[in-house]
Specification:
Layout: E1 12-17, H1 36-55, E2 63-68, H2 74-88, E3 99-104, H3 108-119, E4 125-127, H4 132-136, E5 144-146, H5 151-164, E6 171-174, H6 177-189, E7 197-199, H7 207-217, E8 224-228, H8 231-241, E9 251-255, H9 264-268, E10 275-277, H10 285-296, H11 303-314, H12 330-336
Parallel strand pairs: 1-2, 1-3, 3-4, 4-5, 6-7, 6-8, 8-9, 9-10
Helix pairs in contact: 1-10, 2-3, 5-6, 7-8
Amino acid sequence: SDVCSSDLERLAVGAVPEKHLRHAVPSSSPCGQIKLEAVQQVLAAKWAVDVINNQSLPHELKIGLEIHDTCSSPSLEQAQLFQLISTVQGKQGQARPRLIGLIGQVPPSSLLTASAALNAFHVPVVAVSPGFYSSVGGSHRHNILTTAPDLAGQARALVALGSEAGAARIALISSSQATVASFLSESTTLGIRVPEILELIPRQVNIGPAVEGFLRSLHQPRPVVAMLLDAADVVTVAEHLKQTEIQQKPIWLIGTLGLELRRLKSWRSVYQGGAFVEPHMPELREFKNFFLASLKSPGPGLSALAKEYMMENTGCVAGTFHTNQGGVQCSAIQRRSE
């Protein structure tokens, strides 16, 4: 495991394992190609720890951070989990800080395994993947928490918007049973009928034609249609409908998570006139400055990670090279970063 704090505190440590830092594909690294999003999230966790420690009083507990790279390998994932259990049981020696929590952005099955193993030791596990609860339903331990937004929560907001708009009936499109249940419960409370429901699966291959067929089956010329899907599916549906002529002109109520705003043009004309709900975190200038500073002057535990990130993201060349080899040195880009 990679420890990203060179000065882990003796009192307590927050461990952030199980985020795949590298894709499981051949490369010069034993783990494979680095995953850019994972590096960003590692630095976000490091920044959060620094903020908490800097705001704590001298006599209060300080926390450190461990990063465990599973490299998309089930066997390595199990090894990391056994190491965490050993830490909780105190088998790693007195010098190792006590584990007080686990944060993971991994497939739900992996997170459920980790939470089951750590539940007996009263160690909380935080799921940061959007839609975690929707994907596992009620089959999870009480020590699993989440700070991530969820489509089921957005369902209630869309029903409220439909009610305020005076809709008496709403057709529903969703890829989550928990979201459908939440939508139906809220619509019943507000006296709105939901007679037509299209249930899909995430990243369904024929999702565009499926939504098109569903819209054609609606008898109202201006039906109110609520669609709660993953961001990629929202864009895929828009790309399909943009090339299709249908008689119905829906009034859209759309809820999603993590929509790529740079793809705005691809779906804006299709969903024009509708309502769009998506939670967004404000852009924090403090974290942006921390992120750029970490790339420019990484600490001892982050230097290798920062170098890989720069090489993958910018195509720069690490180390020294002759002028006839071409390329730009990563150190040169780091000096220009602000």
